[in-house]
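Lab notebook page, bench 4
Experiment: in silico fold of construct C2
Operator: M.H.
Input chain length: 297 residues
Purpose: comparison with the prior construct
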Amino acid sequence: METHAAQNADRSRRPSRPSRPRRIRRAGIAAVTVLAATGLALAAPSAAQAADTVPAAYTPAAAGPAASTAAASTATVSTATVSAATPEAELAALEAGYADCPELPQGVDPARWRCEVHLATPKLRLGAADLPALRPIMMVHAEGPLADGTPGQVWGAWHGGGPVVVPGGLTGTPAGDRSPVLGLSLEAEYGGASDFYTGSMEMRFRLSGPLLPDGCEIGRSAPVSLHFQRAGSSEWVSRNPPLIHFSAYDDGFAAPAPEGCGPLTGLLSHRLGLPAASGNLLSYDASYTFRTYDRLH
């Protein structure tokens, strides 16, 4: 398993691949926008469904650790089937993310490496705050065996859907909703490290509003470390091309107090109930597709 430092080292050793399409950041943003506009919501299937649809020879590494039974404290994690866009529309939006597939490390076999494109729709609870569902996030990475045979992975891209309005604004009261100047928004950001084999990721949460300075964040000096578990089993909606749905959660992480928020840092900490060593939850319904590098062109 590579650390983030190792991933960065691999990035510096990547060979050029002139036949590869130019990476375009706009593609990922457009794909997230399309999925949000169509009201896409992803669902975790029942275990019975997964038993019929997941090939025994393949376990998606990107979903993190093996599925486990959720504890009572995670009973709120949704696994109900909800309205979704058609698989064709979902695949079209996900496949736009191939424009962000990263270059491979030297000496690896492109046929044994795949680029994965994930779309996650997160739900977040931090401290005592009543937070809205976050906007869809698209993540792109590559994984496969390194030249020495050990597992490797290279980060590609993160495309967030933008900030969401926090109900109650800075005050947490109806006045915070009525007064634009008291507005408060939150956006999830990539924290700089990820491990799709084990389901771990670092994230930051940017806070913004008319009275807040740039750089106001939860996890600013040290990103929030998340370790996701599966909620239920995966569902293969399609095999060719692959389209997989799954759900995951972390209800055991610590959430630090906001930093870099100027004179309102203390007020925000009180408003959000941070820092909070427990009681936090990030869950998400997700889909992903993948393609081996020998089939990207």
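Observations: Residues 204 and 281 are 14 Å apart (CA to CA). DSSP finds six helices and 13 strands in the chain.
Next step: discuss at group meeting.
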